[in-house]
């Protein structure tokens, strides 16, 4: 997911100009804009990182379940083993879906560029 980040350099230049040539109100306004855009960019980055983490969660869960099975299956109950195997299957399915979606997105991007 690509979010539209604010151009901090432009906001910084505006703040710099207003401090050089502007009134007190201009200085306050441009500083507030710079701060607001910075906070918004940090928030959008957090959303992007969170979305990536959620997207990879089934895969990571499946890997951990496989590690658990590999190391501890002899001390697990049948029910625990079955749940872990199901998590491994879901992780593999999640990985396949993610890869398919990424391929589809790349094709769409190429088509839009053409």
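^ Assign residues to that structure.
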């Amino acid at each position: 997911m690509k979010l539209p980040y604010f151009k901090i350099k432009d906001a910084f230049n505006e703040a710099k100009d207003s401090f050089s040539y502007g009134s007190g109100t201009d200085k306050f306004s441009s500083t507030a804009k710079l701060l607001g855009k910075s906070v918004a960019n940090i928030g959008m980055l957090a959303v992007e990182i969170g979305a990536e983490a959620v997207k990879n969660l089934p895969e990571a869960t499946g890997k951990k379940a496989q590690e658990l099975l590999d190391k501890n299956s002899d001390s697990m109950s049948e029910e625990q083993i079955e749940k872990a195997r199901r998590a491994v299957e879901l992780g593999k399915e999640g990985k396949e879906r993610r890869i398919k979606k990424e391929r589809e997105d790349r094709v769409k991007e190429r088509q839009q560029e053409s």
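The two ends are 21 Å apart (CA to CA).
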